[in-house]
Design a protein that fits this description.
The complex is a heterodimer. Chain A has 15 helices and no strands. Chain A is mainly alpha-helical. Chain B has a single domain, classed as MetI-like (MetI-like fold, Orthogonal Bundle), CATH 1.10.3720.10. Chain B is mainly α. The longest helix of chain B has about 35 residues. Classes of the chains: A mainly alpha, B mainly alpha. Chains A and B meet through helix 1, helix 2, helix 4, helix 5 and helix 6 of A and helix 1, helix 3, helix 4, helix 5 and helix 7 of B.
Chain lengths: ~280, ~300
């Protein structure tokens, strides 16, 4: 038993070190956001908090950050809503409406392949396509591409939950003369609530974080937060403090969700990779 | 309530069966399949924008013959492959150790799992920004820590091989948690009494790991490994911010090459050709891998 105790101490030591390595960079950027450029360049460990970075980020006329934040909220909530709707309908259709078995198999395989290929390969044709119909730099174009990118994970997670709906409930409803739309509205959507939460949180965060597509499909007016942060890092004179402040604000949704919806995130992530 | 006639019911179900799947099919057809077809067509053309309209000139296979001699493509392909192998190996080892430990401890499980989830949820570009500041040779925290213990600092992103390793470290930080989470889910679904039986039989922790845990976890390990290997070809955000592919072509990765050729240099036809080749090779690998895991599931 003595050796078991030492094992346990060792495991806790390794885990604590791992946790430290995960947390340290985020804490450090949090501190950097409250430092003056001089304190940052000197690498002060002790400093008096300075709010100028946030002021410049949020209130200066030259800053687009509030608009970027709004754009990100709009695109992420729009694409999340669409993914939830489309994915739930598709999962229900494939698992409960008696398709010949090759149809779901083909859709799921295509979905998985599409999920695994690098999005940057498709950004080019998306750009040309949207530009030729006059949708370049629009919210609609970015929302649609985010719907496409996140639909595979949406279908994968929602399938897990749709398959858990007891068949008896559906059969009873059918016998009562329930039509498919009524079934969806009264039975399927209410019963997959936890699935919608898990999927919704993941898709929202992934859309919020997405960079490669947003970089190429947006203009200054429609740019999202990641695009803005990349721009900070590339300006002629890098404003490190302002960049840190922008980075800190951009991870707030993720941290809130992590604190209040951790269970859903775990469920979504593990269901989303074919487990 | 009277049940509707069986035939009318069947027709109605048929109709709704299609309506419910149609939106998903439309998204995949219009935003995945059509763009891939377009990509193939574009790769056979030179494309210029004039007053908002695209001017297409047919060039046949010219782009594809040019491709193997392109130094960026060669560097991108070689770097991405090496990057995937090194980063994913490290992620699997660290992720497995962490998952194993978390599954064995009693106190602090939820706390560790919450903390380890964090990097998955942070935007890739923010991770790039954070590490760019941390790697800074003058005021970054890494050189500061080196200084505290009396070591000389490095210019982490400044020289070829070191920059490559530095980018790999960032990828490990970013994606080990994902591996951890999948492996932890696998470990938690193993029957608990096996661990107890092994302990009662007096098996050492190492013996139990080699003879019991790893063999039982093999399917999960294989799927996670293959998934991470393929998906690591997506790497873009961190490289974009940390190094921009440099110095020279030391951290050039395939996604970045495509971006550079297609958008920065405005060579849409040629950029499409690189995309087509990348998609072809990756899809082949994915389908092979899916066939492999399917056979595995059947034999189990």
């Amino acid at each position: 038993m003595e050796s078991v105790r030492w094992h346990r101490v060792g495991m806790h030591a390794v885990l604590a070190l791992g946790a430290l390595i995960v947390v340290l960079p985020v804490v450090w950027i949090g501190f950097a956001a409250f430092k003056t450029q001089i304190a940052l360049l000197r690498g002060d460990f002790l400093f008096t908090p300075y709010f100028g970075n946030f002021e410049e980020l949020l209130f200066s006329k030259a800053s687009d950050y509030p608009a970027n934040f709004f754009n990100s909220l709009l695109v992420a909530s729009g694409s999340t809503t669409m993914v939830l709707l489309i994915a739930t309908l598709a999962a229900y259709s494939m698992y409960r409406l008696r398709w010949p078995s090759w149809v779901p198999a083909l859709v799921l395989m295509g979905s998985l392949v599409f999920h695994m290929i690098p999005p940057i390969t498709l950004v080019g044709p998306w750009y040309v396509m949207f530009r030729s119909i006059g949708w370049d730099n629009t919210y609609a174009a970015l929302v649609l591409t985010h719907v496409a990118l996140n639909l595979p994970i949406g279908i994968a997670v929602m399938s897990v939950f749709v398959r858990d709906i007891p068949l008896e409930i559906e059969e009873a409803a059918r016998l009562d003369g329930c039509s498919t739309p009524q079934m969806l509205w009264r039975i399927v959507f209410p019963l997959v609530g936890p699935g919608l939460a898990a999927t919704g949180i993941l898709v929202f965060v992934f859309s919020w974080n997405e960079f490669a597509v947003a970089l190429n499909l947006t203009s200054r007016q429609t740019a999202t937060v990641p695009v803005a942060i990349a721009k900070f890092a590339q300006e002629y004179e890098i404003k490190n403090g302002v960049m840190a402040a922008g980075a800190l604000l951009s991870v707030i949704p993720a941290i809130l969700l992590l604190l209040f919806a951790q269970r859903h995130i775990v469920k979504g992530l593990t269901a989303g990779t074919g487990k | 309530m009277r049940a509707p006639p069986a035939r009318a019911d069947a027709i109605q179900v048929d109709r709704w069966r299609f309506y419910t799947l149609a939106p998903a099919l439309a998204v995949y057809l219009l935003l995945a399949l059509l763009p891939i077809v377009n990509l193939v067509v574009m790769s056979a053309h030179d494309i210029r924008w004039q007053q908002g309209a695209a001017q297409w000139t047919l060039v046949g296979l010219k782009h594809y013959t040019e491709l193997p001699r392109d130094p960026l493509v060669r560097a991108g392909l070689a770097n991405t492959t090496l990057f995937a192998l090194l980063a994913v190996t490290a992620e699997m080892l660290i992720g497995f150790a962490l998952a194993l430990f978390v599954s064995r401890i009693v106190v602090g499980r939820v706390l560790y799992r919450t903390i380890f989830l964090l990097p998955i949820l942070i935007p890739g570009i923010v991770i790039g920004a954070i590490w760019k500041l941390m790697y800074n040779p003058d005021f970054g925290i890494i050189n500061q820590l080196f200084g505290l213990v009396g070591l000389a600092g490095f210019d982490w992103l400044g020289s070829g091989r070191l920059a490559f390793m530095s980018v790999i470290v960032v990828d490990i930080w970013h994606w080990t948690p994902f591996v951890f989470l999948l492996l932890l889910a696998g470990l938690e679904s193993l029957p608990e009494d096996i661990h107890e039986a092994a302990m009662l039989d007096g098996a050492s922790a190492w013996q139990e790991l080699r003879r019991v845990t790893i063999p039982m976890m093999l399917p999960v390990i294989v799927v996670t490994l293959a998934f991470r290997l393929i998906v690591s070809f997506k790497v873009f955000d961190e490289v974009y911010l940390l190094t921009g592919g440099g110095p020279g072509t030391a951290t050039e990765v395939l996604s970045f090459t495509i971006y550079r050729r297609f958008f920065t240099e405005d060579r849409m036809g040629y950029g499409s050709a690189i995309s087509v080749v990348a998609l072809f090779v990756l899809t082949l690998v994915i389908v092979l891998f899916m066939g492999m895991t399917r056979r595995r599931m059947h034999t189990n």
